[in-house]
User: What shape does this take?
Amino acid sequence: MIETTPTSDPRADIIALTTRYARAIDDSDFSSLDHVFTPDADVDYSATGGIHGRYDEVRPWLKGVLAEYKMLRHTVSGHDIAVDKRVARSRCYVRALHGREVDGTLRFFELGGRYHDKCVLTASGWRIAERRLERIWVTRVNAADA
Assistant: This one.
């Protein structure tokens, strides 16, 4: 069970929220995203060629598009969070390593970007109501290519 009860430190709660997102994606635990996003969240991954839509459209899209990767590792850092009562604006960096099997070899690419989030405090804890992914860079990461 995912603990989502808010603490007295909204900043720590929101950092934990972004970490839960990363862990759910990396573990292909897409049902856990229900504890990250509001049901009507506006999610925009279009900067990386992805979908822009409501959470209920985005969740199955994520499950489908990420299925081809044998390994995913998302790291979030550098959180900048401004809280105003029950609403918060959050920005954090993301480094996302994606590994796909090609001809029996795991091939990697890495995305560097920033998540821009609007978080809201609900009865179940903090949730992301809006997310926009800003692409900063993408690179291949393979020993054979170095």
The beta strands are 37-44, 52-54, 71-84, 87-102, 105-122, 125-140. The longest strand covers residues 105-122. The radius of gyration is 16 Å.
